[in-house]
Amino acid sequence: MEVIKSYNLYLNTREADYGDSNNCTFIFTTPIVLTNTNNRFRVSTPMIEMPYSFSQLNTTNYRLPFFYSDNNVTNINPTIQFPEGNFNITQLISTIIGLLVTSINANGGVLCTAANFSIVYNPVTSEITWQFVNTPTTFRSITFDFNTAFVIGPMFGYPPGSTPVMENVVPHTSPNKVMVNPITSIYIRSESLKFESNYEALVRKKPSATHTSSSRIGNYQNSDILQKIPVVSLPNSIIYFRSDIKSVISNKELGELNLYVSDNISTTYTLDLQGVNYGINVMIEEVQLLSNNAYKDRIEYLPPAVDKNLLKEREMLLQSLVNDKLRLENELKEKQDAQMQKQDADQNNDAAK
Known about the structure:
The chain has 3 helices and 19 strands. It is an alpha+beta fold. The protein folds into 3 domains: 2-54 and 183-200 and 221-298, Jelly Rolls (Sandwich), CATH 2.60.120; 63-173, no CATH class; 310-353.
């Protein structure tokens, strides 16, 4: 594709006309318009400076339902709410113990303290082991609903959809390694750009053995993702990202540009940057798709119309030429006919002699 024109936009969300760093819109003083409707715009983000100001546990994923039973109560089902923020595994364990003690005591369970919870992290295997302790005469059982808390589950080493049961009989070890930072990437999205070939895969469960190989495991929907940024920095730092990936869009003109952010685990397509702005370089290129469109890209106005008198004069000259042609063809035919008659007469005279 040949680049006809290019526009380099150096944007900072603090200068947006509407919104905040989470979702903002820039209004262009002069709209960007295709010079030829047969061309296309191509967009890319050569450079992004994104703050790691968001929280791994936030208001979209900080709730954990659980079911609890002991000698006094049977199957109470409260929900604990983690404070918003970023945690290491030691802080996460200390936080959940405090929340569980408060919730169980508030809901009529057998009085318990932090000493009744043994949640041990193994730094060698990156797994944790759960058990109720110091309860020789009291039965206690707790079941976490990681099916609902699909983000908190992996943070403790449990896959989404699992419902592990912890008792004071046998220690329970997480099946997976803990991952206290489940947000591994940020997506910059745009409602203004109409991407032609961006898709997001919606993967369903793997079909059973009775399904044929042609059965579809997933389907796709159009995506508004402008760029995916891997999270490779620590919290409260800046993620510097460069990319040369370019996407074709079907917009004929751009009068504004919307940008909003989400993460790799949220189902609401939102991410809170806590009011911290970011900078982004957006490059918009007008590209020529077909080589035979080259001459069209250089025509900026229509040629002047031909004078009507000249057109009339041309028609008169053409008609005069046609008349001359017909006259000459008639004269030539008459001469040919006269010559043929003379030849016939000469042949008849020779025969009479």
